[in-house]
Amino acid sequence: MRILGIETSCDETGIAIYDDGKGDLPEGIVAHRLYSQIAVHADYGGVVPELASRDHVRKTIPLIKEVLAEANLTPKDLDGVAYTSGPGLVGALLVGCSIGRSLAYGWGLPAVPVHHMEGHLLAPMLEDDVPEFPFVALLVSGGHTMLVRVDGIGQYELLGESVDDAAGEAFDKTAKLLGLDYPGGPALSKMAETGVKGRFKFPRPMTDRPGLDFSFSGLKTATATAIRKEIDIHGTMDEQTHADIAYAFQEAVVDTLAIKCRRALQQCELTRLVIAGGVSANTALRAKLAQITQKVGGQVYYPRPEFCTDNGAMIAFAGMQRLKAGTNSDLTFKATPRWPLDSLSAI
């Protein structure tokens, strides 16, 4: 079986075809394309929902044609069409939902609505080293930060989530305070590589109390206060001070995430940890989580960097699992901007 995956939840248009390996192709992603709207939103310092929707309209169909051509397939070779139905920006979601549902109808194929965060959660299963159930998953991106116990596909227990800014959002906002262009998270991490440990010390929010929820708005405020203090004292900040603040901020975020992951593993009595979402590409975070799992005799799993951010491959894979379980929509479609992960049905 082969399925087309369409991802349009925010500012990236992702298209992919996944094959389950039961036919004439090996199991895995047959072809994929990803178009990022960074240049479109850079002047605004963040994603403009209306512009995102319009760009998805412009790019989705051409990318589908490119993926089919790369795979040397036609719509007749497909067995289903999966599309991100939520959560995300409602306008962007509607583009993918309407195109995906319409193509499925025109091609006579099942249409499979996919939960965006389930796509991220299952993305590590596209790799050779596949985690076995059960495990704890850290889903960390610009829009979400959550810890989930995973006992199977659709068997999700929410352990904790951010009560304000997501980790990726905090990265981008702090990068902006440091004068970095959008998207600032990767640029801040790069800047932190030359930072000096110990010059600045920022809090590890909500780690001094029980529980697995996160909060990053206070950390962002503490960083802004440190920047203002440096400018008040010295009149400006040199390049090294920028790097030192970036280092301290990233260290605080990574430590906070690691502390909560360790607690979650202990609470669930598990040793396997999955990390997915855009921030999962952060090398400092990967190194820290590897240390934690090694101490408990476990392992951390994550997708390859190109599948950490939003992409069509994860939607195609998640869609295939749902399609095989009999999930498909009628002729209607629905974009769901807010959609709890633990409300999904188990497979």
Strand and helix order: EEEHHEHEHEEEHHHHEHEH
Instruction: Label the CATH architecture of the largest domain.
Output: 2-Layer Sandwich
> How are strands sequenced across the largest beta sheet?
3-2-1-4-5
**Name of the CATH class of the largest domain:** Alpha Beta
CATH superfamily of the largest domain: ATPase, nucleotide binding domain
Keywords:
5-stranded mixed beta sheet, Nucleotidyltransferase, domain 5, single chain, globular, 2 domains, 347 residues, alpha/beta, 10 helices
Written account of the structure:
The chain is α/β, with parallel strands linked by helices and 347 residues long. The model has no long low-confidence stretch (mean pLDDT 96). The chain is globular, with a radius of gyration of 21 Å. The chain has two domains: 158 residues, Nucleotidyltransferase, domain 5 (2-Layer Sandwich), CATH 3.30.420.40; 171 residues, Nucleotidyltransferase, domain 5, CATH 3.30.420.40. The relative contact order is 0.19. The chain is built from ten helices and ten strands. The chain has a five-stranded mixed sheet with strand order 3-2-1-4-5, sandwiched between helices. The chain has a five-stranded mixed sheet with strand order 8-7-6-9-10, with helices on both faces. Its main location: cytoplasm. This is tRNA N6-adenosine threonylcarbamoyltransferase. It catalyses: L-threonylcarbamoyladenylate + adenosine(37) in tRNA = N(6)-L-threonylcarbamoyladenosine(37) in tRNA + AMP + H(+). It holds the Pfam family TsaD.
